[in-house]
Amino acid sequence: MNKETEICIVGGGPSGLFLGLLLAKNGIRVTVLESQTSFNRKFRGEVLQPRFVRLMKELNLEQRLEKYEHIKLFNAEIWNNKKYITQIDYEKEMPEGPYAIKIKQSVLLTFLYDLAKDYSNFELIFNAKVTSTIKSANRTVGVNALVDGQMTAIHASLVVGADGQCPRLGRQAIFLLSIKKKILI
Ligand SMILES: Cc1cc2nc3c(=O)[nH]c(=O)nc-3n(C[C@H](O)[C@H](O)[C@H](O)COP(=O)(O)OP(=O)(O)OC[C@H]3O[C@@H](n4cnc5c(N)ncnc54)[C@H](O)[C@@H]3O)c2cc1C
Q: Residue 34 Cα, ligand 1 centroid: separation in angstroms?
């Protein structure tokens, strides 16, 4: 099977989905390939720092996020080896993003996906495990993926490796380094 897209993102974690959302918002046809069958994950941490809140405000997404299960943390205590070090008062020290958020990663991913799927040019494919990149004239022009067990070639103008902390694809693919935050927002 063959498929065409403009930008193919490998990995539907926070990085891949957020980038996919921003690209889709800018009218780019984007396909995110995620090897898992759902957003359920092993524990991956649950606290997003105030700069994330600030970003949500900048993107006018704060109210949409409010609808998803989370807890606002207005201050934090820092401990080291059971010894209290200090306290951070987010409201006082970071008024532009005055709290951190405790949110399950599966809920965060659902939030990002719900936003992204408002755009018809966005597509997320679960159960799509990328196995290799497709090269032409020494350039990455797509990926091969097992989608629901069927080998599929996905051709794209650009492939982005967002496949996690030990990215395998990243070693093979071209990274999207030149996207300017200003354009995307
Ligand atoms: C125990 C733990 C606690 C953490 N606590 C926090 C915290 O409190 N706050 C915080 O902000 N961060 C925390 N983190 C870090 C946070 O989880 C990561 O920064 C974040 O998940 C990175 O997102 P990512 O999208 O870059 O990668 P990932 O979340 O790793 O997502 C990569 C995605 O790519 C998919 N993938 C991989 N290979 C392929 C392939 N070949 N084909 C298709 N898909 C593929 C994976 O299934 C995955 O969904 C924690 C991490 C861990 C492990």
A: 12
